[in-house]
Specification:
Blueprint: E1 9-10, E2 13-19, H1 23-34, E3 38-42, H2 46-55, E4 72-74, H3 77-81, E5 86-89, H4 93-103, E6 112-115, H5 128-136, E7 144-148, H6 153-157, E8 162-167, H7 171-181, E9 186-191, H8 194-216, H9 220-241, H10 252-263, H11 268-277, H12 282-288, H13 294-309, H14 314-324, H15 329-337
Parallel strand pairs: 2-3, 2-5, 3-4, 5-6, 6-7, 8-9
Antiparallel strand pairs: 1-2, 7-8
Helix pairs in contact: 4-5, 8-9, 8-10, 8-11, 8-13, 8-14, 9-10, 13-14, 14-15
């Protein structure tokens, strides 16, 4: 049975809480406010709340961007979600459970829960929809939407043309999210394959690290294209094992996001890989970064999930070994190239 998803909406204006003030959360909150929605952004850092409220900027995570003046901001998590028809989660996946524990019982029973973060929880090997079901109850899956696609936060904030997908088992929920976000610079498609959209967003970050390593080693465009193509095959194999739809991986949340993250200079995960390929240590790379590169943790969770399900994912495996077992990057590439020959598939 589908949940009624009309709560928190007045005369076409959505009342939306965005949980997480990093670059992506800030960009999405600014877009929602610019679209005329009653939008509040929850931010962890008190000094950042003050800056967003008074200056309409987020110099910590999205410098140089002016946010819509109607965007409200708070450091009170419960205040943020009170009376909201849509709650958009944009915190790192590895801390998502702790945030949701604080929200259990505070989110309305008809509120649409949207997730825009990408990754798989390391301790449980769960996607965010499963984490939400654990803490908010199984009924939340009837009003849960996974938001993903080839989008860099800065370009969305700068109103450059971008496309994303909103996936839900409940068409009414995904349509409301589609309408809330859509504007001349952001086109939103709906989809019913929540599992596929969530997996695409998690796995592409791991492949992006591998592509960055290849570029850092100077292996050229041929190698990068091969990694993207074979990475897509690995994504599809795991997706099939988990009940996802093949078509999802040829769309925005699969191939689209994979190509962007593996090739774009704004990709944090590709940057991590590139510096690894150049010889830097992972700890030093991460110490330089203010924002989270989800693929570092997802490399381990996706690898462990593939082993659990018996799915062959050699690129993910070698990326995990480079990141977490100190395998030399060149040695990992040699091992990939020396695998037994077989038909493409």
């Amino acid at each position: 049975m589908m949940t009624d998803v009309r709560a928190g909406k007045v005369t076409g204006i959505e009342r939306i809480a965005v949980i997480g003030g990093g670059s992506w959360g800030t960009a999405l909150a600014g877009r929602l406010a610019a679209n005329g929605n009653d939008t509040i952004l929850w931010v962890y850092e008190p000094e950042l709340v003050a800056e967003i409220t008074t200056s309409h900027t987020n110099s910590l995570f999205l410098p140089g961007v002016i946010l819509h003046p109607a965007l409200a901001c708070t450091e009170n998590l419960q205040e943020a979600v009170a009376g909201r028809g849509i709650v958009l989660l944009v915190t790192p996946v590895q801390v998502m459970r702790s945030v949701l524990q604080q929200l259990a019982g505070k989110i309305g029973s008809e509120t649409i829960v949207v997730n825009a973060s990408k990754g798989i929880e390391l301790d449980t090997l769960q996607t965010v929809s499963c984490i939400c079901a654990d803490l908010l109850g199984d009924d939340v899956l009837n009003r849960y939407v996974a938001l993903s696609g080839p989008t860099f936060a800065r370009e969305v904030a700068q109103e450059l043309p971008s496309l994303i997908v909103a996936a839900s088992r409940n068409t009414a929920a995904s349509t409301r999210v589609q309408n809330a976000f859509s504007c001349p610079c952001l086109r939103v498609y709906t989809n019913s394959d929540v599992v596929g959209v969530e997996l695409g967003g998690a796995i592409k970050n791991v492949i992006a690290i591998a592509a960055g390593i290849s570029d850092g080693l100077g292996f050229g465009h041929n190698a990068r294209a091969a990694l993207i193509t074979r990475g897509l095959a690995e994504m599809n194999r795991l997706g099939q094992a988990m009940g996802a739809q093949t078509a999802t991986f040829s769309g925005l949340a699969g191939m689209g996001d994979l190509v962007l993250t593996c090739t774009g200079d704004l990709s944090r995960n590709r940057t991590v890989g590139f510096k690894l390929g150049q010889g830097m240590k992972l700890a030093d790379i991460l110490a330089e970064m203010r924002m989270v590169a989800e693929g570092v943790k997802s490399a381990e969770s996706v690898y462990q999930l593939s082993r659990k399900l018996g799915v062959e994912m050699p690129i993910v495996e070698k990326t995990f070994e480079i990141l977490h077992e100190d395998k030399p990057a060149r040695q990992a590439v040699i091992e990939l190239m020396a695998r037994d020959l077989k038909a493409e598939g």
